[in-house]
Amino acid sequence: MWITFFMCFALVCAGGDCFDLLAGDNAGREAPRQQRGSSVVPLEGLDPVLLAGGKEAQGDEAFAVTRGQFRYLFAGAETKAAFEKEPGRFEIQLGGACAKMGPTVRGNPDLFLVHEGRIYIFGSEECVKAFRAKRELEAKLDPSKFARVHRSSIVNLDRVKKLQQHFNGDYLVVMHDGTQLKLSRSRRERFRSLLEGG
Fold first, then answer.
1. Does residue 8 sit within a domain?
2. Is the pLDDT of residue 134 over 60?
3. 49 and 93 share a domain?
């Protein structure tokens, strides 16, 4: 019975927007996505370079770049060139996965948020709220006492027992209670500095 249900659900999702079925709160909402071939125009057609800079301007199909599953539109040649020079900086982050739920959940390309100059998309409004709440909490923490060790983990520096070398040059943060957390390579130097009191 479960296999039959799963197969029916998969067929329904393949023919439509799964997020609308799962979220249930999108009824009556227009789907602003535009498709061209197999790529999707994300961000409601807004220019991602300007959006990352805090401005909203509608993109123009005459200035378009397809990257992966997305077809980005730009307000002009200047922002298109900036995108082409540094696409990783201006494209949707995390490969289009929901910034809250991670790689197992595809984000809705028109449900987005700009955080620290990067564009993230989400699977639902609830994911956006949770992402914002986490960032607001982090902003309230004393940066001399708390540090992010990975995308999903923040630790109290007073509770860190040691930094332990792991495989392939990776490090683990070992807490006083025995918990071990992987330390992101991009955060390693800053974290070491904080542990040493700097």
1. no
2. yes
3. yes
> Residue 186's domain spans which residues?
141-195
> Rounded to whole angstroms, how far apart are CA atoms 124 and 71?
21
Report, as an integer, the average pLDDT of 112-125: 92
Among 31, 164, 54, residue whose Cα is nearest residue 119: 54
Phi, psi (deg, nearest 5) at residue 140: -85, -15
120: Cβ–Cβ under 8 A, 6 or more apart, which residues? 92, 93, 94, 99, 107, 112, 113, 114, 131
Over residues 128-138, the mean pLDDT reads 86
pTM: 0.61
d(CA 112, CA 130): 13
CA distance 4 to 43: 36
pLDDT band at 40 (very low <50, low <70, confident <90, very high): very high
Number of domains in the chain: 2
Clarify whether residues 38 and 74 are in a common domain: yes
